[in-house]
Specification:
This protein has 2 domains: 3-175; 183-291, Immunoglobulin-like (Sandwich), CATH 2.60.40. The chain is built from 9 helices and 9 strands. The chain has helices spanning 3-32, 35-44, 46-70, 76-92, 99-102, 109-117, 119-144, 148-175, 229-232; strands spanning 189-191, 196-202, 212-220, 233-237, 240-242, 246-249, 256-263, 272-280, 283-291.
Length: 292
């Protein structure tokens, strides 16, 4: 087959498979929860999910390139199957707890809780399998025909995979970092300890604000979110604790809650502020700190 046609076919397969895997991910989460939650999870873990999908797609593209260009037999198909299954498992792990509602006969609440708790670790497992698969298939290309043309293709795909892993590593570190941005641009912070994931985003804390607002999103992989957030959350500034004055959001219960927690403004404005959340998801204390 013409080299250009082979490359086009391989690239098309890579993009199609990657797009299809992302579509499957969003569809599963939409069916098990709702579309809002599906896209919320995609936004939260987009770097992992896109890399998993592209990694699996790259293996398919390389395999097609290998098969059509070299016409040799290879065990690469088994590697693709293993890494593809791992990638999909990692991607849908964020909402695996809903399976307990659909298939109550399973009764594996302990396993479900564990999978949800180690969601990020599962993403890395999937990425590792993708990397192994890409390197393995690339090695077959080198071994069976180490011409400059085939070597360039294999090296390019491996390089893309390495760069993707580095980007994921940096993005994952930045996600939970304490920010030094101005009051109007304070960034979201996420804590994923235990079976409950909590994301906090400061809203308006300007000098003219009548209340200091924090948008809070809670997602659990097991049980209900029944806590009274006005009783388990405090704002700490200059060594003093301030209790919230109101919660404007979803009532207690369910697997997903979102709303705005309001505090009276702190005056004079402190240099730093910390939101502390106690006894949610079995975690004694979670802290979210910003420089303002």
């Amino acid at each position: 087959m013409n080299t250009k046609k082979v490359l086009f076919k391989s690239a098309s397969a890579t993009l199609a498979v990657a797009g299809g895997q992302i579509a499957i991910y969003l569809t599963i989460l939409t069916l098990l929860a709702n579309s809002e939650y599906a896209f919320e999870q995609f936004a939260l873990y987009k770097f992992y999910i896109i890399s998993l999908a592209l990694g699996f797609g790259a293996q398919i593209g390389l395999f097609i390139y290998l098969r059509n260009s070299i016409k040799g037999k290879s065990s690469s198909g088994k590697i693709i199957l293993v890494s593809g299954t791992t990638s999909t498992t990692s991607m849908v792990s964020c909402c695996v707890h809903h399976l307990a509602s659909i298939l109550p006969v399973i009764g594996a609440s302990g396993i479900i809780s564990t999978i949800g708790q180690y969601q990020t670790s599962l993403y890395w497992v999937g990425l590792s399998f993708n990397a192994i698969g890409i390197i393995f298939i690339a090695s077959r290309i080198f071994k069976l025909r180490s011409t400059a043309r085939h070597s360039t293709v294999a090296l390019s795909v491996v390089a893309i995979a390495v760069v993707s892993l580095l980007v994921i590593s940096c993005s994952g570190s930045d996600q939970s970092a304490v920010t030094d941005s101005g009051a109007a641009e304070l960034q979201s912070q996420t804590n994923q300890d235990g079976p409950v994931s909590i994301t906090v985003t400061p809203q308006d804390i300007s000098d003219s604000a009548t209340t200091w607002d924090f948008q809070i999103a809670l997602n659990t992989h097991m049980g209900d979110l029944g806590e009274d957030l006005t009783q388990v959350i405090v704002l700490v500034a200059d060594g003093k604790e301030y209790k919230p004055v109101a919660w404007d959001g979803d009532p207690p219960g369910g697997h997903h809650r979102r709303g705005v927690l309001k505090f009276d403004p702190v005056s004079p404005k402190p240099g730093t502020m910390t939101l502390k959340i106690h006894q949610v998801g079995g975690i004694d204390e979670r802290s979210f700190t910003w420089n303002i």
